[in-house]
Specification:
The complex is a heterodimer of chains A (1041) and B (494). By secondary structure, chain A is mainly beta. Chain A is 6% helix and 46% strand. Chain A is built from 9 helices and 59 strands. In chain A, the strands form 15 sheets. Chain A has a 22-stranded antiparallel β-barrel. Chain A has a 5-stranded mixed beta sheet with strand order 11-16-17-14-15. Chain B has one domain (26-474): Alpha Horseshoe (Serine Threonine Protein Phosphatase 5, Tetratricopeptide repeat). Chain B has helices at 5-8, 29-41, 51-60, 78-82, 91-117, 123-148, 160-163, 171-188, 203-218, 234-247, 256-259, 294-299, 316-321, 327-332, 375-387, 394-407, 419-429, 436-442, 446-457, 478-483; strands spanning 151-152, 168-169, 270-274, 333-338, 344-350, 370-374. In chain B, strands 1-2 form a two-stranded antiparallel sheet. A two-stranded antiparallel ribbon of chain B has the order 3-6. Chain B has a two-stranded antiparallel ribbon with strand order 4-5. Chain B is globular. The relative contact order of chain B is 0.13. The chains are: A mainly beta (1041), B mainly alpha (494). Chains A and B meet through strand 28, strand 29, strand 31, strand 35 and strand 36 of A and helix 2, helix 5, strand 1, helix 7 and helix 12 of B.
Chain lengths: 1041, 494
């Protein structure tokens, strides 16, 4: 009976016709099947259908995802009008949980779901991008503006201080090797989401509490993200074509001093330096007079002005807005073709996708080619097996834009005045630097001529088999492999580096191969006893082996010529610091089990346990156990609730669980030896010495979560929602506890310390209007606060070393992680202040910033630092409104955060006390202190200042923002197109990031991370010149055949 | 290892693939030699360049040889140069503390392992390894005492929690360890090496260091817990210096520039040096470019930045100290330059160790050794001891100074050389070698000389006036104070 009977043309047939509607308009894509057969069709764009059936009375079944299935009997050729009701209850909706699925109604853990079917309705280039603002308690930060790069994802705040904070990603049951975003904002050996085509994704679930996630044991403490890719659906084979094209540009430029304003500031500073350089020297003296006084006939730009500045039209000079020259419009396009279908033997989904994403700055770009085949074969009634395979290749171009001393930094701080003869060629080729300019090379020419290509070839594959041993008892085994080869070629030609006469090309090649192999074997048993006792159990074993091979080669001494940019053309290659291969490997063995029980879908119980053994753990602590338990009570199923009609659904949940974080590095427990060579008599003398302290007790970080919550539906589920309150306590944190350096080490890696995250999450979905005009609103809002509970052995505060000057972050018991710890600026020093002997930092004078003497010892120094903020927001939220009317659909996503702070080390480049005049400075130096009569805005002191610098609140900004991430307006072309062209057609236009507001005046993106501002013990990602976000206008088309 | 569970568990024991680890180390003589080489490498390796860079940053820049006030911004060395009291958070100060203690840890680990597993090393070599490790430990501790005064004594490889219980010891106790280590070195080390062992510590180097330690201990206390103990050990020093001179292993090179020549390394002047080689293999030096700006490298057609960021000019006072025709002035310093952008730098720069014709592939690839102790210093220390009444004659002193002056190309001789004159001659002779600050401290001259020099030199009015004895040593790094949890007290004045 499995195959469709061949239809005999001559046989007499009844023509059944009709239209399926919902809320007044035709519903396309509805499956119409003759009950008891495989004969069927789907409705066209306007909801109509035609089906020929044998002349026998029967029943038609109308089904469509998200709608209640309807049956209609017939006894002759008839015309129907069927109204399908939206299945707002979703009670039978199935949720993917670890190692299986579960009815949503029976879920007792905290799980956030994202229906990815909407992904293809808007232009999305990465999976992490799709999650922004969608899920309560899931913070997705776009830390970079370079296309193709991974975002940072955090579930319920930071549980760890130094180990990984990114969740575990599981794609179709395959747990991918977790990767932490490093402090420079990069996934060094690839993000688990790299190259994954979002169009292939069916849905995404985020397991937030330990009860849901603990089945993943030592990798679950940061939450687990389950990604399910598309399968074929029974019915007619479906062919879809999606495409979009758009133009993007920078959301904003950084407000720097204009060339005229820079001249004004440089004049002030150089004159002040001149006056201070000796007696009898005045600002009004001309360059010639200054030369005469000094007895020289050359220009000293530190003491003399360029007299052309003051001349009308500044002859011979050109004024350049470097940002304007560097930013450009990017052009993005994407094409995807997918075919899917299913019958009783085979289920398939096959897709191919091409994406080309243009950057908003010269030199940036991203291309991705990806394909996927998900095929499942049912060999017989008991055995099915399948293969999911997805090869992909991408090329990301980035000449090195973000981060300290990289191009974004240079573009904003580069001197806006240059010799007209050189212009954009300043200090490249045969042009020297302008005497009053930074001596760097023109960032425009560097952007245009530098190669930085990262090529990633990745294959994700899963081969699996399912065997039904007994009714209800199934065995499943999977073999999974994730192989990623990534390599980066960098090359900078000679003419844009160094200085005239000393220009030298440089190049490097580095890459990695990451291989994860996972074998998982599970037994599952499902049985309903006496119609009321729904019981299921799972037992499993898994083996996980992950390897990374890395390599790097760099040129030294330049290149032989400019024609060859690969390293065979380098003059030389030497030094193991820049040239090496390294390998690491880790193995994880696991046993796990779960029991779920539901009584009459009313009382719910679930418990799980996992035992993980990891090569990463110390010799004394190889194995860890991670249990969890949760309960639920569907109050609305109780008979006493039947009278309370407005309340259509109510479930109370409570859970407890323990999970771990094994993101502690592959060999951290072992005292490794560093290579410290020396030289004697002109020859290399090999040397080795311990570079860290042995710790055989080193283990996973332990995280314990309590979660209580409820899910509800009101007014026949017109309004649904959920609420969760949780406390997540992370213990045995892996801390590089500072120790006295007299021991030979700055820190010792120890499982010590405790952090608590408290928070609540609300998700609400409301169907405000139904009918012809539909309006739905989804809101998510979450609050999270973290607090350090314990630190090292004495709970002593840890000042987190900074890569730049003194520490500006502190770990202190009772305070949030990485609290910002700096001196407070409280105004500008006046003569009265000096006379009153207010506390000063070194040789400060009138017009310099005034700092708060927090410890009251009469002077300003590092001891006056105080906690002034914390980096994590208190609240994150997202609101999606969707509207439908006739063929139109409109959706608007607004998203934001409140309550965090940014300490921007980018300030060191564009906003520091005592900064030289050559660097350009932030726009608010317009309103600096100039004289007692012209004190400016009171925020920035005088430009010519020699007292030095101390970390203070001048670089502190609120990280609050809101942003209209996405506005999409679509129109169903099916209403005007002939059905023969396509079954479904939709055209849409999307505006991304067009509106919004943030308070980060000292940088371009409040979430930017691109430079390690900490040290090896406590890496802290900071912004030191990140790209702005991209605003995009896109036109797209979805076609279904 | 798929479904068979038992076989998989051994996979949980993974040793690092790309680095060694301690459980398998210290098993052969070669392992011990590598551990020793790593102890030497701490002279060279650190974030800021190791021993030579430290001498330039903390001794030369601190002294009246350099007027290191920044032009275009505020640089990390300025508070050192300017005698600011905010130095506890300065990176150069932390480097001095951290690098020396790292070196001590490596020496301690090696010495402990030698005691426990040293039987794999033949007896003669084991004795030498012990001597070299103790020489290095003494050198690291001596550096600490001179810069910080009291420091904790750690003479075994202890875990951090145990080290965290050790108080800062009185200077006299630290010196006891230094002297005892140097004595072992003198007893155990050969007088010289050949081939690829040249550059290892010798008994002569240990004697010279010990003489310098005695001289330093003999300096005044200034009423602080500093390097001086007023111990009057000039006679002990003189005895050692005379032994070195009598050994005939060293000689006074006839030409000043030959001492520092790239092509004449390990010459007869050298008692001990930090060794560097060329080749982009990470074994080159940074210090040659430390005191000069990037633009000077450009001027010299060196295709990478100096790393010095900007000029730390030579003090006028030092320049004026050289009589006309002194070859040391023009060898050690360059009189400004004109940058490729047309900017004329008129101040003098340190070019003593720069030979652009033999440059390496980057700014950390200079192949020139840094001489820690040279024969001229042995002779002049001898003169110093004599002038302190340790024996010998004024004629010997005059002869030494005249020998030095003659090599500098100065006509005529001097007689009845006094201590201040000797020290000024040392200043000219050892300019750029990082000894000036230590010399001033040792001879009790530091407060008078520096307080007279600052108002004269500091035309830009950026330096502190009237420094006091507290500023003879540096503060304990702030991070170390914090890590000690109150066990260490900050030095007075900071």
């Amino acid at each position: 009976p499995a195959m469709a009977h061949p239809v005999v043309i001559s046989a007499p047939q009844w023509q059944l016709t009709g239209k399926v509607v919902s809320q007044g308009s035709g519903l396309p894509g509805v499956t119409v099947v003759l009950k008891g057969s495989t004969q069927g069709t789907t409705t066209t764009a306007d909801g109509s259908f035609t089906l020929s059936v044998p002349e026998t009375a029967g029943t038609l079944v109308f089904s469509f995802i998200g709608y209640t299935t309807q049956e209609k009997a017939f006894s002759g050729p008839e015309t129907f009008t069927i109204t399908l009701a939206e299945d707002t209850k979703k009670l039978e909706e199935v949720v993917v949980v670890g190692y299986g699925t579960q009815k949503r109604a029976d879920v007792t853990g905290a799980i956030a779901s994202f229906d990815a079917s909407k992904l293809q309705e808007r232009p999305i280039t990465r999976v992490d991008q799709a999650l922004v603002g969608q899920l309560a308690g899931v913070q997705v930060r776009q830390t970079t503006g370079a296309p193709g790069r991974g975002f940072s994802v955090q579930v319920r705040g930071s549980g760890s201080i130094t180990a990984n904070n990114e969740p575990l990603y599981v794609v179709d049951g395959f747990p991918l090797e977790a990767a932490a975003q490093n402090a420079a904002g990069r996934f060094g050996t690839g993000s688990p989401l790299d190259n994954i085509n979002p169009n292939d994704i069916e849905n995404i679930e985020v397991l937030k509490d330990a009860a849901a996630a603990a089945i993943y044991g030592s990798r679950a403490a940061n939450g687990v993200v389950l990604i399910t890719t598309k399968r074929g659906k029974s019915g007619k084979p479906k062919l879809t074509f999606n495409t979009y094209a758009g133009v993007s540009q920078a959301v904003r430029h950084l407000d720097m001093l204009s060339a005229e304003e820079w001249v004004d500031r440089a004049t002030e500073m150089i004159n002040a330096a001149w006056v201070a350089s000796g007696t009898g020297r005045t600002a009004s003296q001309t360059t010639a007079q200054r030369q005469a006084i000094l007895g020289v006939n050359t220009i000293n730009p530190n003491l003399m002005l360029d007299e052309r500045w003051a001349q009308p039209g500044h002859p011979g000079l050109t004024y350049i807005d470097w940002q304007k020259e560097a930013f450009k419009n990017g052009f993005t396009q994407d094409y995807q073709l997918a075919a899917s279908g299913a019958n009783d033997f085979v289920n398939y989904y096959v897709s191919g996708d091409y994406l080309s994403q243009g950057g908003i700055m010269i030199g940036l770009g991203y291309k991705r080619y990806s394909a996927r085949a998900n095929v499942e074969v049912k060999a017989n009634d008991k055995f099915k097996f399948g293969l999911n395979i997805s090869p992909s290749y991408s090329v990301a171009k980035d000449p090195g834009i973000e981060g300290k001393d990289n191009l974004m930094h240079n573009i904003v701080s580069f001197t806006p005045v240059q010799e007209a003869a050189a212009g954009l060629d300043a200090n490249t080729g045969n042009f020297t630097s302008y005497a009053w300019s930074l001596s760097r090379n023109s960032p425009i020419r560097v952007l245009q001529n530098t190669t930085g290509d990262t090529k990633t070839f990745r294959t994700l594959g899963t081969l699996y088999g399912d065997y039904q041993l007994l009714p209800g008892l199934a065995f499943r085994t999977t073999l999974n492999i994730d192989n990623t080869d990534g390599n980066t070629k960098s090359y900078m030609p000679a003419f844009v580096s160094g200085s005239v006469g000393n220009r030298q090309a440089s190049g490097s090649y580095n890459g990695y191969r990451r291989q994860t192999f996972v074998n998982e074997n599970t037994l599952t048993y499902n049985k309903i006893f006496a119609e009321k006792h729904d019981f299921s159990a799972l037992a499993g074993y898994s083996y996980n082996n992950s390897k990374i091979d890395a390599q790097r080669i760099s040129s030294t001494g330049g290149f032989v010529n400019q024609a060859v940019t690969t390293l065979n053309g380098a003059v030389n290659i030497s030094g193991t610091a820049n040239n090496f291969t390294t390998e690491t490997r880790n193995v994880l063995l696991s046993y796990f089990g779960r029991v779920q029980y539901s009584y009459n879908s009313k009382y719910l119980l679930s418990t799980s346990i996992r035992r993980d053994g990891s090569s990463r753990f110390g010799d004394n602590t190889k194995w860890g156990i991670f249990p969890s338990a949760s309960v639920g009570w569907r109050v609305s199923q109780e008979s006493f609730m039947e009278d309370i009609t407005p309340l259509s659904d109510l479930k109370l949940r409570g859970s407890w669980g323990r999970s771990g974080n094994n993101g502690i590095g592959d060999y951290s427990s072992i005292a490794t030896l560093g290579i410290y060579n020396y030289t004697f008599g002109g020859a290399t003398a090999a040397g080795q010495a311990p570079n860290r302290v042995n710790n055989p007790d080193l283990k996973w970080e332990k995280s314990q979560t309590f979660d209580v919550g409820f899910d509800f539906g009101l007014l026949k589920n017109r309004l649904t929602g959920s609420f969760d309150y949780y406390t997540k306590t992370s213990k045995d944190l892996l801390l590089n506890v500072p120790v006295v350096y007299a021991s030979g080490f700055a820190t010792q890696l120890t499982n010590i310390g405790e952090v608590r995250n408290n928070g609540w999450e609300v998700e609400l979905t409301s169907h405000n209007f139904t009918g012809d005009f539909q309006w739905n609103t989804s809101i998510n809002l979450s609050h999270n606060a973290n607090k350090v509970v314990h630190l090292g052995p004495t709970d002593a505060p840890i000042e987190v070393a900074s890569a730049f000057d003194i520490p500006n972050n502190i770990l202190q018991v009772g305070q949030p992680i990485y609290s910002i710890y700096v001196v407070k600026q409280i105004g500008i020093l006046s003569q009265a202040d000096i006379d009153n002997k207010v506390a000063l930092y070194g040789p400060q004078t009138v017009g310099d910033p005034k700092y708060q003497d927090a410890n009251g010892d009469g002077k300003i120094d590092a001891k006056d630092r105080q906690i002034v903020g914390h980096p994590n927001p208190n609240y994150i939220w997202g609101v999606t409104n969707t509207f439908k009317f006739k063929g139109f659909d409109l959706s608007v996503l607004v998203q934001g955060q409140q309550g965090g702070s940014i300490y921007s080390l980018f300030g060191r480049a564009v906003d520091r006390t005592g900064q030289g005049y050559t660097d350009n400075a932030l726009g608010f130096y317009r309103d600096r202190w100039r004289s007692p009569d012209d004190p400016g805005a009171g925020k920035r002191g005088k430009a010519f200042s020699g007292f030095g610098r101390i970390k203070n609140t001048d670089w502190l900004y609120s990280s609050d923002y809101y942003r209209v991430r996405n506005i999409t307006l679509g129109y169903d072309l099916g209403l005007i197109l002939n059905n023969r062209i396509a079954q479904g057609a939709r055209i849409y236009v999307t505006a991304e990031n067009w509106f919004g507001h943030d308070k980060y005046l000292g940088g371009l993106n409040p979430e930017a991370v691109n430079t390690d501002g900490g040290d090896a013990s406590f890496p802290i990602g900071v912004d030191y010149g990140g790209l702005p976000l991209t605003k995009t206008l896109t036109l797209g088309l979805n076609l279904t055949f | 290892c798929l479904i068979g569970l038992a076989g998989c568990e051994k996979d949980l024991n993974q040793a690092p693939i790309s680095s060694g680890s301690t459980p398998t180390f210290y098993a052969t003589q070669a392992d011990f030699e590598q551990a020793l080489n790593a102890t030497y490498s701490m002279l060279r390796v650190s974030d800021n360049g190791g021993f030579p860079d430290r001498q330039l940053n903390l001794s030369e820049t601190r002294s009246d040889n350099i007027y290191g006030v920044g032009d275009a911004g505020v640089r990390d060395w300025e508070p050192v140069n300017n005698f600011q009291t905010t130095l506890a958070t300065n990176p150069y100060i932390a480097e001095a503390w951290d690098s020396n203690f790292s070196g001590i840890f490596r020496a301690n680990t090696l010495l402990d392992q030698l005691a426990a597993n040293g039987s794999v090393v033949d007896d003669a070599t084991r004795k030498r390894f012990e001597g070299e490790a103790k020489f290095l430990r003494a050198l690291y501790y001596f550096d600490l005492v001179r810069y910080f005064g009291k420091v904790p004594i750690v003479d075994h490889a202890l875990v951090p929690s145990e080290v965290g219980k050790i108080q800062r010891s009185p200077v006299a106790d630290v010196y006891k360890l230094i002297l005892s280590d140097l004595q072992t070195a003198i007893d155990n080390l050969p007088v010289s090496y050949t081939g690829t062992n040249v550059g290892r510590a010798t008994s002569g180097a240990a004697k010279g260091m010990m003489a310098l330690v005695y001289l330093t201990r003999s300096g005044p206390t200034y009423g602080i817990e500093g390097p001086g103990l007023a111990s009057n050990e000039y006679a002990q020093a003189l005895k050692l210096l005379n032994e070195i001179i009598a050994s005939g292993k060293y000689s006074f090179l006839p030409k000043y520039s030959d001492i520092f020549s790239y092509t004449n390394e390990n010459n007869a002047e050298v008692l001990f040096d930090v060794q560097y080689i060329l080749g982009g293999v990470g074994l080159g030096a940074t210090y040659p470019g430390l005191l000069v700006p990037d633009t000077y490298f450009t001027f010299l057609k060196i295709p990478y930045p100096s790393g010095g960021l900007e000029i730390r000019p030579i003090a006028n006072d030092l320049l004026n100290s050289y009589p006309a025709g002194d070859v040391r002035k023009t060898f050690n310093f360059a009189e400004g330059f004109t940058s490729t952008t047309g900017f004329k730098e008129t101040r003098w720069l340190m070019k003593k160790y720069l030979n652009e014709n033999l440059k390496g592939s980057n700014r950390s690839d200079w192949p020139i050794n840094w001489i820690v102790l040279r024969y001229t210093d042995i002779l002049m220390m001898k003169a110093e001891c004599i002038l302190h009444g340790a024996g010998g004659t004024q004629a010997e002193v005059d002869a030494i100074v005249n020998q030095v002056r003659a090599r500098a190309g100065l006509a005529g001789t001097v007689s009845n050389v006094t201590l201040p004159q000797l020290m000024e001659e040392r200043r000219r002779e050892f300019a750029g070698e990082g000894s000036r600050w230590h010399d001033l401290v040792r001879e009790g001259l530091v407060l008078n000389v520096i307080n007279a020099w600052i108002p004269k030199e500091d035309t830009r009015n950026r330096m502190s006036r009237n420094i006091d004895a507290n500023q003879i040593i540096y503060p304990v790094p702030q991070t170390e104070l914090t890590s000690s949890g109150g066990l260490y007290q900050q030095n007075p004045g900071y």
